[in-house]
């Protein structure tokens, strides 16, 4: 029941639209970790070969448990996306496949994105209508984005 409440709370906020991938990615990481489903974003399990041995039955049971949890992880990811994106990703066979495809589509590690972050940082000037607190928050956000993109700022910057 608590899991459903967490998903409902997240859905009240912004779903993944494509432009908010970074924060959505963090929220999903926290949520799936809390649900003990994070491993499904990093691993894939293949169906074991059928057999009549005790080990074969155990392997099949482990796979079925993993598969059920993977479907739950996929459902959670899909339920936290904008309606327009769901159809583009519901075909993914596993949560990891979906997670990787989303990172490829919306992750911000391209050279163009990094250049735009650096340019935005270098061109930024305090808006007179913003308070100093707001100015520092904006600067802090830009520095954090650059750090997350593994861009080292020079002393001059």
The ordered H/E elements are: HHHHHHH
Provide the β-strand percentage band: under 5%
**Oligomer state of the chains in this structure:** single chain
Q: How many helix segments?
A: 7
Organism: Cephalotus follicularis
Protein name: UBN2_3 domain-containing protein
Please tag this protein with its features.
mainly alpha, UBN2_3 domain-containing protein, 7 helices
Describe the 3D structure.
It comes from Cephalotus follicularis. Pfam families: Retrotran_gag_2 (PF14223). With 157 residues, this protein is mostly helical. It folds into two domains: 2-106, no CATH class; 111-148. It has helices at 2-12, 21-34, 54-79, 83-89, 95-106, 111-123, 132-148. α6 runs antiparallel to α7 (132-148). The radius of gyration is 20 Å and the shape is elongated. The N and C termini lie far apart (49 Å). The mean pLDDT is 85.
Summarize the structure in short.
With 157 residues, this protein is mostly helical.
Summarize the helices and strands and which ones pair or pack.
Elements: H1 2-12, H2 21-34, H3 54-79, H4 83-89, H5 95-106, H6 111-123, H7 132-148
């Amino acid at each position: 029941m608590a899991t459903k409440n967490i998903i409902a709370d997240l859905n009240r906020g912004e779903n993944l639209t494509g432009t908010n991938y970074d924060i959505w990615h963090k929220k999903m990481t926290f949520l799936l970790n809390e649900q003990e489903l994070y491993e499904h974003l990093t691993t894939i399990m293949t169906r074991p070969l059928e057999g009549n041995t005790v080990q074969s039955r155990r392997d099949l049971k482990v796979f079925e448990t993993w598969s059920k949890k993977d479907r739950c992880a996929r459902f959670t990811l899909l339920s936290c996306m904008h309606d327009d994106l769901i159809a583009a990703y519901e075909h993914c066979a596993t949560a990891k496949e979906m997670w990787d495809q989303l990172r490829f589509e919306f992750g911000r590690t391209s050279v163009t994105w990094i250049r735009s972050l650096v340019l935005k940082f270098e061109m930024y000037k305090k808006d007179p209508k913003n308070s100093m607190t707001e100015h520092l928050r904006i600067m802090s956000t830009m520095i954090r984005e650059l750090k997350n993109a593994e861009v080292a700022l020079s002393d001059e910057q």
